[in-house]
Amino acid sequence: MTILRRALPDEAGTLTELALAAKAFWGYDEDFIEACRDELTFHPEDVGRRHIVVAEVSGAVAGFYSVDGTPPVGELGNLWVRPDTIGTGLGRVLWEDALATARDLGHEQLDIDAEPFAEGFYLKMGAERVGEIASGSVPGRMLPQLRVRVPA
After folding, report:
1. pLDDT mean by block of 10 residues, the chain; 152 residues
2. d(CA 56, CA 6)
3. Which CATH superfamily is domain 2-149 in?
4. What is the DSSP string of 19-47?
5. Pairing relationship of beta strands 60-68 and 73-81 according to DSSP bridges
6. Domain segments of the chain: what residues?
7. What gap in Å lies between CA 49 and CA 104, rounded to an integer?
8. Is the pTM of this model over 0.85?
9. Using CA atoms, how far apart are residues 98 and 51, in angstroms rounded to an integer?
């Protein structure tokens, strides 16, 4: 059974480690993961002020997303699932909840600076590629920039 709920500030470390593990799933080496650490680190105050939702499976955090920004245009700032849950449908559950949350917050669209290996997932979910954006972690690396209309 999956329970979706707001993340708690004291889960910041759990969110950080989950995001880094999910990033590492794609075969990146340790140096690359370390280069991403700052960007994927959550602090209790971040969790308290941002709209972050976790998926709890069997009492443990198995994934999370964040919806950031000011309506009408928001950002899907994160969508990560534990590597052992990839392919189980948990990503789709988080995606659908993120869109519902975005709608409830007044967003009409969400922009996504996507992990390149996750681009196919987002396209399958209905996002469209609108360009590229520079990585905030690795100089010279470009990320797919996607956009999705939030259903009314």
Report:
1. 97 98 97 96 96 97 98 98 96 98 98 97 98 95 98 92
2. 10
3. Gcn5-related N-acetyltransferase (GNAT) (3.40.630.30)
4. HHHHHHTTT--HHHHHHHHTTT---HHHH
5. antiparallel
6. 2-149
7. 17
8. yes
9. 10
